[in-house]
Amino acid sequence: MLVGLCPNPLCSASGGCRLRIFAKRFFDLSADACGIGTFCTDGFPEAENSAMQHIRDCAILDLHKLVCPKKLEVFMATRTICFPISGYPYCREQPVTFTWIKGSKRQNIRAVHDAVHTTDPDVSILEVSSASVQPEGEAVSSLRLLLRLDSVAQDVPISTVFEAAKVFEHGGPFADLLTCAPSKVHKDTRLRTNGKLLRYSLEGSEYPIEPHPDSFFEWLYCRALKQFPEKAAQLSRYNAFSDIAAAADSKKYYGDSSRAAAIYVGLAAAGKLPCIDSYKSFIAEVYTEPKPLPKSGKSETASKKTPEVSAPAPAKEIPIDESSQSDNANIPDGAQMEHILEQPKATCLLLSLAKSAGLAANNSSELAYKGKEFFLDAYQKALKNKTLQINVHKNKFTFPMEEHDSGFHAVGVLTRSPAWEYGWKFNYLAENTSGAEKPEVKAKIQKPLTALEHLERCGYKIVQQVVPEKLPPIAVQRMAWKTGEALCDPVVVDFLQFIRTHMQSDGSFSFRIPKGASKKSFATLSEIAQTWDKMGLFAAIVIYPQNIVYELAQNETVRHFLSGKWLELFVEHQVQQILNHYQEEQSAEVSVCSNVVLSETASVGSTHELDVVFSINGKFFWVEAKSSSRSIDYGKYASLCEKLNVTPESLLLVNSDLSVEECEGVSYFWNYRVANCATITQELESMIAKQIESTGNAVLSTD
To answer: What's the pTM value of the predicted model, to 2 decimals?
Structure first.
């Protein structure tokens, strides 16, 4: 090993020379510096290992210059992680401290993300810079994201527009830069020799640098995303963003893409994207704190709609030990309820209410507005007529709702919830009148069926299910998630297929990387292979530019993981991410179970295993994960849909082997949805939204 020949190869020039000779003599690296991985041992300090990793990633030929610098520059650095939120200021910032290695962007990005996952492993973070290994992150970097301008024929990168618009003490703006290549723009000496930056000027309009220095860049960035919605749609899959270049000393030069991306996602979630159309509106929405409503909750608009009416007092029969809950009578007035109904999380319920009430509209936005007006009108009538029923013990208030034209009758429900505005969330329960002139308000609000309750109603006995306590360690789960993300690249798909083909054979194997594979594909493949190696899946592995030579660990658990366990964990994670969104943003009732084994009570010995089942507000969904396209009985799933009392549109089959076109082909013949690792999130979101929208109100229990 290297450590035995050169005890401290990174501390001196002579050691560096010995390293070069040793590498050339014994490893014949010529154009393959990646082979250095075979002699980088645990004997090195952590920082030195990181440096060696950087050499492997970049395939540097001149080892002496990088392995043996005069001084290895390693220090602590801080970057800001930006989280989108669906209300002012639309972005929450969190500083993260990590070990910085100069000249190793990829390592530093990995270190930032690892630091975030240390405290919150469920965060889905995207690096939005040209150094990102995530394709969607690189696509929305300031160097790649384009903006359409009226004054220029072609679309221009955000970074170029930002630099060209600068006005300094002695010059600017420099409109000629708009037609230059990005690599030349940042080298233009005029950007550094014309004094202090005063303002921005673009297409005849002036934009101040104070009091919001970052606002102009953020506005440009959001404008570009709105112009290219296909790129913006990719961002909604993430709940955190980073930009390795956005340090405190570089923001003033380049802007912070992570903050701009978070603001856009937050605005989209809040339905506030129209504010991006003008800089003034953008500032008013993002940088101007909304004035709080008076404590009385009264507004001029609300006073015109309904007179002030005090809510009825709580019932006198309150137990002494629950008297502290008497503040539940402080329910929202008309103006406050209107504000609650304007939250993004309310949209889904308002759409469901409008459809159930038989209201008509030209589009979903108009329909949601009509649902809001219908709910608000019923609520204001209840306040006025004092028909609001108070249940202090359940932290719940109910009131009647009816639409005379359609004969719709329902119960409006207010429930105490700190997560909602003013501490209340709303819902409704449709009444089955059966021809009655006026239904009575139900005393008990029924809960939606869980996924397991749905299966039991279909006549099945739950023999087995995996609970969170029995899941693999979090490190293994993260590796599965990373594997699923990497399988978006076809080269990684080929590598995993190759491993599965030779899994039952001993010895070493050589996987040849396809000719024409991009640098990005090679980087993704190298990263996932190294991740597996760190977790002990390989007995040995060497990564070359043209091929990967490996020997799989002789372990049944390893084989089980690579055969498909990773996909089950990945699919469950993707489902859970979406359920978290519905639960947090829309206060939906959700449940999820994995690896559920069913037994037909009427047929002894007949069992079925379902990979993932879940429910949203009583609507049942089923996801199957198959890591291989061989010997799949597609018809089995179609027939099982009937037994489980679900439509094929509520089933998603995930197959990591299939291309997007092949997924579409299978779906054509069997009617249910089919996805691979690259399209699973999109298909899940589409499936859920379509089914919930088509069924309207929640499917309720009959208990």
So the answer is: 0.44
